[in-house]
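In response to the reviewer comment on reproducibility (Comment 2.3), we provide here a single inverse folding case reported in full, input and output, so that an independent group could reproduce the run without further information from us. The structure tokens appear first.
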């Protein structure tokens, strides 16, 4: 039966270079399990498997003590996730809400409020009803109208400082608008992701072999809490404001008045919110939102009722950790039971094998479900899911159906444990999983037709070449007919069609016009931005963000290709000490794993030939545009070192990058400025040795002032 891929490489023969890569991978794996366990309450491996991963790190670190990273899982207390976020004490705690599950619970809530306030039995306290957004709550502190701090909820009393991350959200104003702006205000609300954005992001993550999120909420949480704010910036996060903490003045005396003020101040306020004047009103709102739920662009898990008058909110106060003036009316979980007919394996662009459950169609929450993801071999083994089983399914976060459990009593006597294939179902190559990775991959690479087709689909996808009229369906057909086997074939299609007896225009579903349009759309893309081209290559771990980093760093196609070839040439069994590899590794945001993936790609001659063929058909690879407007530091390479006082490292980096500077992790001849805080050590010394300009924080600020 499938087991977690526990690391097995023999320690005695493990080289230092390999150890370094493995440690990084293990740390990432553990971090992702920590997150699932501590934050999502959804562990995906057993305790024993988790311990095995940690023990492997300990063993490797014992052998190579100088590889112990400061943020290694072994250097953190207990198993708590290692994170680089500072703690923030909430001036007013961020508490939770009590729950109501029925109409009676709601009537009881209203009765309690009434009794507490000593109101007449026939008087209804006006109530604001709001959708309960399923994201993560965030508190934003503004002083004199300017955003100064953003903090997650954490345990309600202490959260994490995510200021630099929050600043990248379009729906979080940096400066409050309107005329009544209290000197100090803390605005609270929910960071969330649209379901469609979540699906698109997950697809991208899957293609690049990155973390796939279980639902939009996890995806929003994972995207906001990134140490590298450029990753947060690249994620489509949204924000609804609905509450507040410390306020030096209250611009209104009602909940609905405050929401109107939040709207004027520049926040998004949920448009469905309603002021209710009776219990019937409230319940009608609940039912109506329940009906709209599946069609809303974002996930909600209930509605929230809040007493409208703020003086009453004040009097009602809190009981334990929840306010007496508000309650959450939850929706029932959308579950259903059906039969799992078959487990099929899909082969992705990077060879990842993903098991998919084919279900007897069933309606869950108004949507017909026929497939459910099974994630990986471990998931199937852990839940002991077998073909023929009756399973309970759930639309997790409303989007991707998941299998919650198996109804064992209904298991047919013939059902056998699922044997995860050890050969690729498409090309027959053997299946392997990398150390510390649960994903199993087809090792067929270039010979696997499934990988080839997926690579082509990726090549023409929206963030890559984005060719109108050439989607997944057409790629599959053209591939099956031998018309397009490699990216370059797309660009020779017209020429070949002119010579061919079997014209494209004669194909079913095509005509003169559509073919002409297709050729025009292809010609349109003979000029392509470097970052799109790099992304289109479909190299593992090179998502949209990394492709941009690389494009910005190398500037031109030739510089990029030459550097990658030099880095690939520097690869030896003992590691890679070539200057090109070091330079690649030094790009802030690029680590060993990304660098290794690039080297692996460029070390394969067939990949290089395919790339050269492709470039031969293009007219121009456009260097990546630098951020608009020239700043004194655009195009410069900057290194921040030592402890900075005026801003966090993340903030400094984000600002420098906005101004068009490249931020590097280490000092070299190519560094233009080193900004040194207190206790700057070896980097400062190296800068002096190399004659690189060294600036204090103030000098740096003076230089970028006014930008
Ligand atoms: S009010 C003191 N309003 O639900 C209570 N919360 O279960 C302040 N949430 O932590 C919260 N939508 O993350 C409120 N319209 C809404 C909400 C909402 C989602 C979340 C929030 C809170 C959790 C409580």
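Designed residues, in position order:
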């Amino acid at each position: 039966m499938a087991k977690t891929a526990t690391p097995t490489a023999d320690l005695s023969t493990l080289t230092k270079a390999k150890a370094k890569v493995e440690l990084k991978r293990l740390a990432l794996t553990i971090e992702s399990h920590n997150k699932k366990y501590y934050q999502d309450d959804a562990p995906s491996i057993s305790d024993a498997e988790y311990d095995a991963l940690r023990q492997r790190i300990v063993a490797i670190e014992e052998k190579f003590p100088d590889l112990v990273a400061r943020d290694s899982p072994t250097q953190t207390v207990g198993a708590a996730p290692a994170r680089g976020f500072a703690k923030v004490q909430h001036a007013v705690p961020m508490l939770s809400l009590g729950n109501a599950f029925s109409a009676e619970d709601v009537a009881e809530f209203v009765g309690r409020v009434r009794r507490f306030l000593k109101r007449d039995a026939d008087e209804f306290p006006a109530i604001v009803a709001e959708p309960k957004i399923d994201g993560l709550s965030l508190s934003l502190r503004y002083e004199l109208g300017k955003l100064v701090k953003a903090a997650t909820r954490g345990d309600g009393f202490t959260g994490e400082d995510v200021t630099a991350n929050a600043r990248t959200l379009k729906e979080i104003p940096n400066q409050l608008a309107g005329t009544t702006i209290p000197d100090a205000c803390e605005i609270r609300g929910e960071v969330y992701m649209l379901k469609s954005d979540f699906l698109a992001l997950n697809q991208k993550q899957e293609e690049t072999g990155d973390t796939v999120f279980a639902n939009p909420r996890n995806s929003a949480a994972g995207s906001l809490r990134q140490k590298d704010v450029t990753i947060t910036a690249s994620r489509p996060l949204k924000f609804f404001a609905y509450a507040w903490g410390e306020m030096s003045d209250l611009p209104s005396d009602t909940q609905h008045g405050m929401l109107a003020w939040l709207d004027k101040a520049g926040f998004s306020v949920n448009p469905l919110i309603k002021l209710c004047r009776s219990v019937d009103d409230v319940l009608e709102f609940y039912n109506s939102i329940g009906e709209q739920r599946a069609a809303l662009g974002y996930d909600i898990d209930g509605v929230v009722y809040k007493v409208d008058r703020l003086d009453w909110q004040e009097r009602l106060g809190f009981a334990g950790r929840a306010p007496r003036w508000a309650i959450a009316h939850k929706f029932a979980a959308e579950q259903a039971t059906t039969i799992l007919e078959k487990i099929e394996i899909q082969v992705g662009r990077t060879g990842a094998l993903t098991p998919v459950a084919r279900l007897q169609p069933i309606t869950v929450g108004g949507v017909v479900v026929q497939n459910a993801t099974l994630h990986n071999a471990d998931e199937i083994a852990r839940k002991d899911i077998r073909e023929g089983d009756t399973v309970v399914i759930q639309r997790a976060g409303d989007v991707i159906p998941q299998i919650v459990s198996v109804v064992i009593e209904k298991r047919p006597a013939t059902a056998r444990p699922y044997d995860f294939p050890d050969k690729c179902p498409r090309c027959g190559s053997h299946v392997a999983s990398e150390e510390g990775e649960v994903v199993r991959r087809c090792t067929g690479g270039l010979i696997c037709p499934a990988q080839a087709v997926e690579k082509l689909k990726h090549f023409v996808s929206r963030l890559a070449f984005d060719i109108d009229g050439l989607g997944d369906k057409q790629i599959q057909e053209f591939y099956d007919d031998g018309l397009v086997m490699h990216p370059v074939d797309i660009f020779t299609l017209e020429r070949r069609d002119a010579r061919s007896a079997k014209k494209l225009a004669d194909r079913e579903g095509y005509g003169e016009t559509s073919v002409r349009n297709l050729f025009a759309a292809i010609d349109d893309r003979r000029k392509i931005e470097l970052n799109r081209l790099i992304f289109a290559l479909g190299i593992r771990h090179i998502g949209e963000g990394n492709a941009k980093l690389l494009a910005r760093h190398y500037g031109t196609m030739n510089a990029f290709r030459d550097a990658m070839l030099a880095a690939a040439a520097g690869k030896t069994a003992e590691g890679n000490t070539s200057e090109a590899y070091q330079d690649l590794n030094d790009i802030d945001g690029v680590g060993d794993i990304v660098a290794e993936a690039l080297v692996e790609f460029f070390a394969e001659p067939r990949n290089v030939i395919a790339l050269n063929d492709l470039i031969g058909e293009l007219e121009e690879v456009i260097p990546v545009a630098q951020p608009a407007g020239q700043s004194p530091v655009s195009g410069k390479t900057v290194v921040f070192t030592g402890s900075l006082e005026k801003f966090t490292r993340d903030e400094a980096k984000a600002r420098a990058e906005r101004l068009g500077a490249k931020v590097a992790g280490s000092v070299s001849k190519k560094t233009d400025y080193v900004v040194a805080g207190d206790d700057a050590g070896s980097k400062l010394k190296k800068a002096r040795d190399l004659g690189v300009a060294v600036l204090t924080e103030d000098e740096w600020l003076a230089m970028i002032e006014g930008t």
